[in-house]
Amino acid sequence: MRFTTTELSDLETRIANAAGQALTIELAAFDELVLMVVSYADAIKAAADALSVIDVTAALAELAQEQGYSRPRVDDSLAFSRSSPDGIRWSNRLCAVKQHSRL
To answer: Which ranges of 1-103 does DSSP label H, i.e. alpha helix?
Structure first.
C-alpha cells in the first residue's frame, strides 16, 4: 500500500526537476571546460612536444650512461676508429647488447 499526499507529490516533482536542472548545469560546465581546453590546444601541443623531446633525450642519456657510450672525437684527419676510450670495440658492445636483449 502506498501513501500519497499533496506534499509528497510536490516533493517528488521538485526532486525530479532538481535532477534535470543538475544535469543541465553539469552539461553547461562541461561545454565551458571543453571550450577552455580547446582554446589552449596550441599551448598544450607545444608543451607535449617539449616533453617528448625531454623524454627521448633523458632515455638516450640513460642508455649512454648504462652502456658507456661516448661522444665521438672528430678532427681533420681521415682516420676512422670505432673503439671506445676504454678500448672495447663498438661491434663488441653491440653484440653484448643484442645478447642481453634476448634474455
So the answer is: 6-39, 41-67, 90-102
As a whole number of angstroms, the distance between CA 22 and CA 10 comes to: 18
- Domain residue ranges in the chain: 1-39
Residue 71 to residue 96: CA distance in whole angstroms: 20
Torsion of CA 63, 67, 71, 77, to 10 degrees: -140
**Pairwise CA distance, residues 96 & 61, whole Å:** 19
Name the pTM for this structure: 0.49
**Helix 6-39 and helix 41-67: axis angle, to 10°?**
60
Cα(69)–Cα(27) distance, rounded to whole angstroms? Answer: 54
> In the numeric block, which cell numbers belong to residue 45?
601541443
Q: Which residues pair with 92 in a beta bridge?
A: none
Read off the pLDDT of residues 38-85 as tens digits, 9 standing for 90 and up: 999 999 999 999 999 999 999 999 998 988 887 777 788 877 766 655
